[in-house]
Amino acid sequence: MIPEIFELAGRLPVRRLGYGTAQLTGPGYWGPRGEARDAVDLLRRAVERGVTLIDTADNYGPSVAEELVAEALYPYPAGLVIATKGGVVRTSADAWHIEGWPERLRAMCEASLRRLRLDTIDLYQLHRLDPDVPMAEQLGALDELRREGKIRHIGLDSVTAEQLQAALELTDIASVQNRYNLTDRASEPLLKLCEAHGIAFLPWFPLGNGSLTTDSSTTDPACADIAAAHGVSPGQIALAWLLHRSPVLCPTPGTGSLAHLEENLDAAAVQLGEEDMSRLDALS
């Protein structure tokens, strides 16, 4: 059996298959996706199904996703881990600005605390490293927030293995988020480093931004064949592969559909055999 639980930083247990909130927002992660009631129902259903890791970000909306999380789930049940991100500012649906100066990171974190109605954010992730600000200053700002009790653990998004190694020389890192899925494994060296240090790897686009789902015409025949043999969808196979691939992988697929939420979460029950994994591994 594959492990169901991962302990962030060795002390904060989460179920490995979580829920990401980006799809609760509109095109370009800008504005609301639809009625707030639908998003609230979706978030509550995810927790009813046993999700204990909710992954969001201040720039989804911006602010929209964090506000929906609080509206749906506050007061938060015991054991629910809220992860959010800061360090990127949005000014339009297609404009993203990296801002890593310590005073800006502090302001973004404190704004997230207010929107999420939290005293402490369980996992605060630097959404992008700012190339114009020394890494030590960016992580130093997060370390200071951690010492103040405003965040519990620090994560990084979209980094190389070399950057993670450099970050580990400055502070403790509990998680990384990089693009990684069945057919996109450019971050394999980063995954190996995470395994060596017991760091959670939250793969974004775990379903290839839709290319690995039942709605795709590009699904690989091997994936489709294995899905048919198990009586599940190709998307469920793609998620199950991640859960089998490494015990540090903690996918948080997002969706705005209750039906797709149920389908995604059911992937945790799919047991892949050695032959299945060998065929899927060969798809890279």
What fraction strand?
15-25%
Low-confidence stretches: none
Percentage of residues assigned to helices: 25-40%
Rounded mean pLDDT is 96
Number of helices: 10
Termini Cα gap: 24 Å
Strand order of the largest sheet: 3-4-5-8-9-10-11
The coarse silhouette is: globular
Topology of helices and strands:
Elements: E1 5-8, E2 12-15, E3 19-20, H1 36-48, E4 53-55, H2 64-73, E5 81-86, E6 88-92, E7 95-98, H3 102-116, E8 121-126, H4 135-147, E9 151-157, H5 161-168, E10 175-177, H6 188-197, E11 200-201, H7 221-230, H8 234-245, H9 258-266, H10 274-281
Parallel strand pairs: 3-4, 4-5, 5-8, 8-9, 9-10, 10-11
Antiparallel strand pairs: 1-2, 6-7
Helix pairs in contact: 1-2, 1-9, 3-4, 5-6, 7-8
